[in-house]
Design a protein that fits this description.
With about 120 residues, the protein is an alpha+beta fold. Helices cover about 30% and strands about 15% of the residues.
């Protein structure tokens, strides 16, 4: 398992995702309070098909996945785990709300990882 931490998704990561040993990708992202459609942590599939990526400095997960699949010439299973937050300003530590959501996200991710076959 490899973890990559970024402030934002950039085109160069498509090369990393296209590497031979990559079996699946999980994007983790914080979002404003109701990102998952109901103020909750959610894991949803991400697809590269139908995406219309443009060259730039910021990519959505589907855009990045589209480029990775073009480079590897094969589909790449991918999901996005969204974690709701409230305050995205600079500061130290997390709010109680964000801390609770991270704990829920960790639990959901553990269950999810046990269910998907990673080779």
């Amino acid at each position: 398992m490899k973890v990559i931490t970024l402030h934002q998704l950039v085109p160069e990561i498509a090369e990393v995702l296209a590497e031979t040993g990559v079996a699946a990708v999980i994007f983790l992202d914080a979002c404003v309070n109701d990102c998952a459609g109901g103020d909750m942590v959610a894991i949803c599939p991400v697809g590269g098909e139908g995406s219309s990526p443009a060259l730039g400095h910021h990519f959505a997960p589907g855009d990045l996945l589209c480029y990775a699949e073009l480079l590897r010439k094969a589909p790449l299973p991918a999901w996005q785990l969204t974690i709701p937050g409230i305050d995205f300003g600079y500061g130290e530590g997390l709010s109680g709300y964000s801390g609770e959501n991270i704990a829920v996200a960790f639990e959901k991710l553990q269950v999810f990882l046990r269910k998907i076959p990673l080779e």
